[in-house]
DNA repair protein RadA (Devosia crocina), 466 residues
Amino acid sequence: MAKQRSNFVCQSCGAVTTRWQGRCDACGEWNSIVEELVDSGIGAGPKAAKSGGRPTNLLPLAGETESAARVVTGIAELDRVTGGGFVKGSALLVGGDPGIGKSTLLLQSAAALANQGKRVIYVSGEEAVAQVRLRAQRLGLGEAGVLLAAETNVEIILATLESGPPPDLVIIDSIQTLWTDRVESAPGTVTQVRTSAQALTRLAKKTGAAVVLVGHVTKDGQIAGPRVVEHMVDAVLYFEGDSSHTFRILRGVKNRYGATDEIGVFAMTERGLEQVANPSALFLDQRDEDAAGSAVFAGMEGTRPLLIEIQALVAPSPLGTPRRAVVGWDSSRLSMVLAVLETRCGVRIGANDIYLNVAGGLKITEPAADLAVAAALISSLTGAPLPKEAVYFGEISLAGGVRPVAHSGLRLREAQKLGFQSVMTGRVNSVDKTSGFDISEFSQLSEMVGRIAANGKKPVAEPEGW
C-alpha cells in the first residue's frame, strides 16, 4: 500500500520544504507555505516504466520548416500581440487584475472565431453558464456559436474536449479554479495549478487546439502560482490598466511564435473592449501644452512607436527627507536622473519634493525615457513650459552624456505624423533623419538643461560648460 506523507509548498514560488515555516527561504514571502499531501512508498505515482526505451529519431538543424498555422481572430490588436493570431497546438496564459477585462476580451475573441465557423469552447470555473450568457448578451454576442461549460474537474474537461470534433480554440477561465484527482490538495495550490496546466498543455499539443488559460495575479501584479506554469506555455500575456481610465493594455512578455514586449491598446466601453487605432493620439488627448513640467516622450513598445506625456512636479519640501512619488516609471531610474542633474549639471533639485507621472496610466520601462524625464523636471523647476511641437528621447549616462537609442526613425515618423516638428535627443543616424523635421542632437545633458533654463522664471545653478 502507498502511504501518504506531507510536503510544505510555497504558494508563491513553488519551493518545497519538509516542515512549515513562516517565511519562504526561496522567495522571501511570508505566510505562503501550505501543507500538501503526497503519495509515497510502494505503488505510489505512475506505473514503473519498462526497462529500456526505444530510441528517437535525430534530425539535423538545417532543413525546411513549415510556418505555424494560426487562427486569426480578426481583432487586430489581439492578433498583433499574439504575433498574427492564436497558433494551433499552442497554450497561452493571460493574466490581469480582477475586473480588468480578461473575460470580456476572450469572450469577444471567442465570438469572433465562432462567427468564422470555428469550433470554440469556453469553460468557466468561476461563473455559471447563465452568467456567461448574460455577459455575452450585454456585449451583443448572444447569437455567437460559442459552446459553454461550467466545470472545474480537469478529467471531466479533458473527456469532454476529446469526445467531440477537435476544437479550434479552448478558453479556460481560470486555471486557479481547476482541480484534478491525481493530486491530493485544494484547488489553487501550486501542485494543482501545475498539474492542471500540464494536462491542458498536453491536450493542446495532442489535438492541435489553441488553449488559452486565464490566470489570477498577486498583489505585485505577477501571475499567481508557480512560475513553472509560465515556462510550460508558449505565450504569456498581461492585461494592464487602471480603473480610473477607460483604456486597457494587452502586453506580451513571452511568445515563442512572435515578438515579445508587443502591446495592443483597447478602450473599455459599454459594448465591451474596442480597439484603439491611434494610441499616441489617445495618450496625448488631454495634454496641457502650456503647463510647465510636461514633456512628450517618443517611445517604443515592441515594434510600435508611441508618444506619451511625461508629467513632473518639483515643489519645495517642508520635510527633512524630500518625497519621491513615481507613477508609471522606475523610481530607481528617477533617482539616477536626479543624481546626474545634481552632480554633472549643477542643478539644485535634490532638496525638493519630486512627483513624476506617466499620463494615462501607461507603464514605461525603456531607458530612452531618461531625457524626457529630465526635460520635464527642469521645466517644472524653472517654470518654463517646453516647446509645444517638441518630443524627447535619449538615454542618460552617469557621466552626464546623452546616448543614442534604437529605432530613431520610427519614433521620428510617429512624431511627425501627429504634427510635431522638432525633437531633442542624442545622436541620430543619417538614415533615420526625417526631412522637414528639426532635430537637436545633444552629446551632454547640460546642453539641453541650459536651453530649457534660459527661458525659465526661476533661477537654477549654472551647470559647468554653460
The longest helix spans residues 190-207.
